[in-house]
Amino acid sequence: LEKMTDLVAVWEVALSDGVHKIEFEHGTTSGKRVVYVDGKEEIRKEWMFKLVGKETFTVGAANTKATINIDAVGGFAYEYTLEINGKSLKKYMENRLKTTNTWILSLGGTDYRVVLEKDTMDVWCNGQKMETAGEFVEDGTETHFSVGDHSCCIKAVSSGKRKEGIIHTLIVDDREIPEAVE
C-alpha cells in the first residue's frame, strides 16, 4: 500500500449507520485526486490538468451524497470543503441534530450506537436498520426493538412546550440511556 503523501483533508461524518471517515488526497503537481471512505478507495484520478473542481461520491448504507469542493485560494494554496446532501458539513450536522437522536451504550461488553431518525421513525443500531414495532400508549408512542437479547424501547412524549416538541427517550432493559452528543 503506497503511503498517502498527498493527504490534504480528513473528515468524520456521523450518519445513521455510523461515523464515517472521509480522506482526500490531492497531488497539486500531478493533479491526482483520491477519495477514501472508511479506508476504502472510492475515486482515483491520476492526471488532472484542472487542479480545482469537485468530486462526488456516496457514503454509508443509505448512499448519502457527498461532494468535495477543491478551490484555489491564491498562489498554490487550495481549500477543501465537504458537502453532505448539498449542504456544508457544518450545516448538515446542525440539521442532523434537529432530525435525529443518538444514544451510545454498552451491553455485555459490546458498544452500540442507536440512532432515531425522527422524520421516518427509523431506528439504526451499529449500521443496521432495525425491525421495530410501534404502539400508541397513554402519554405518547413507544417504538420497540431488540439488540441481542435486550429489549429496547424509544418513548416519544410531548414536552408540553411547542418550542421543545417531542422528547424521545431510549429505555434498555428498563434503564433510561442518556442521549449522546456527536
UniProtKB/TrEMBL annotation:
<dbReference type="GO" id="GO:1902042">
    <property type="term" value="P:negative regulation of extrinsic apoptotic signaling pathway via death domain receptors"/>
</dbReference>
<keyword id="KW-0053">Apoptosis</keyword>
<dbReference type="InterPro" id="IPR038513">
    <property type="entry name" value="FAIM1_dom_sf"/>
</dbReference>
<keyword id="KW-0963">Cytoplasm</keyword>
<dbReference type="GO" id="GO:0005737">
    <property type="term" value="C:cytoplasm"/>
</dbReference>
<dbReference type="Pfam" id="PF06905">
    <property type="entry name" value="FAIM1"/>
</dbReference>
<comment type="function">
    <text>Plays a role as an inducible effector molecule that mediates Fas resistance produced by surface Ig engagement in B cells.</text>
</comment>
<dbReference type="InterPro" id="IPR010695">
    <property type="entry name" value="FAIM1"/>
</dbReference>
<dbReference type="GO" id="GO:0006915">
    <property type="term" value="P:apoptotic process"/>
</dbReference>
<protein>
    <recommendedName>
        <fullName>Fas apoptotic inhibitory molecule 1</fullName>
    </recommendedName>
</protein>
<comment type="similarity">
    <text>Belongs to the FAIM1 family.</text>
</comment>
